[in-house]
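Structure tokens please, single chain.
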Amino acid sequence: MAGDSRFPDVDTDGSEKNEETEIVVNVGGVRQVFYGDNLNQYPETRLAELINCLSGGYDSIFSLCDDYDPGKREFYFDRDPDAFKCIIDVYYFGEIHMKKGICPICFKNEMEFWKVDLKFLDDCCKTHLSEKKEELEEIARRVQLILDDLGIDASESRWKRCQKYIWKFLEKPESSYPARVIAVLSFLFILISSVVMCVGTIPDLQVVDAEGNRMEHPTLDSIETACIGWFTIEYVLRLISSPNKLHFALSFMNIVDVLAILPFYVSLTLTHLGAKLMELSNVQQAVQALRIMRIARIFKLARHSSGLQTLTYALKRSFKELGLLLMYLAVGIFVFSALGYTMEQSHPETLFKSIPQSFWWAIITMTTVGYGDIYPKTTLGKLNAAISFLCGVIAIALPIHPIINNFVRYYNKQRVLETAAKHELELMELNSAEGKAANSKSELEILAREGKEDPFHSSRLKVSHSDTFIHLLSEEKHYRTRLQSCK
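Here you go.
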């Protein structure tokens, strides 16, 4: 290639100074002119290597670019021109900003191609890149979970396969119709137990025991026992089938499950055995305190409600906004309660006996509740109340918008991730079908050349959904999916 007439006058002696060298780079049809003094600021980058490779012959040149025109000293690259325009900012400004609309993962790959370190990427763009990486990792995790659920490992023991089946049956309602039925039943048991807990406090539905104390109706008590039995069996089965039992036991939702079950058994133990160890009145007080803990079971609904899970996540991401809200309210409560106490001292029938007592008035005023148990009676006190009311409305309204944005963003993100995981599986299935069809075609061509007939050629060419999808799980993937190409 070095003797080809298309490539005359390559600078083989290196006589031209790099600082005065001018090169033209054509990236995807976009031409850019660079000078050596700019490019040599970062000699480890690909563009700087282009200057130094001019003295190394055509082998050195074509190891860095796709094509080269020696007459124009123009290097050709089949890369993304939009990303390239952003990357070359490092030679002029010392930092890189990623334009809106460019895929962060693809932009990272472009930076790696041009050998520009990620440390030059601005912090705001690094945040966007890290978010996209987390999304891809989440998609990969979901796809892997689906593949693990569909895959069957023949080397596993029968007990291990049984554990996986129970775990999928109880934890993944979308895996099968019976699993969906179990999830609905669990949801109904939670609702029934919560309703029974509330209805049991109605005096007309309570009965009086031998000592004259009111207690829950025996029918409601039986329903409560049945619900607790369901919760207990469900928790024990999930614990036994859990792949990571320590992580399972320390999970927040599983701790809630324990708190919903434990009071029943502790109360039962205290009722039958506690009377021998302590006074009956103390036992009854302990049982009543434990029965209040039954309200924890309402949080079990979050396991079956994606909306509650999304709300929980939005509140977690909004700690800063919630902290600002509490700070604003705390400052306002302190200021307006002190002013209210001072202004109301001149009235003979004042209800503001002290500043700490005025805190309650400030709280119910700024939060627009206004019970009316304490109120100002002087003109200045009423003016102070009006100002505190307006300030409370403003303080509460300010952080609401970011919290709503976090909720909507997370909800939409979960929908996108779920759709992306499904599309990823569909693409893997399609690639598998194409690969099997290509293999079948090549086998038929070989048989045709050998003069043989394939008695099953028609069945091999018919690739159905059920014939390819499961086989894909146990075979190595020789095709790049969209997820892999982004990575």
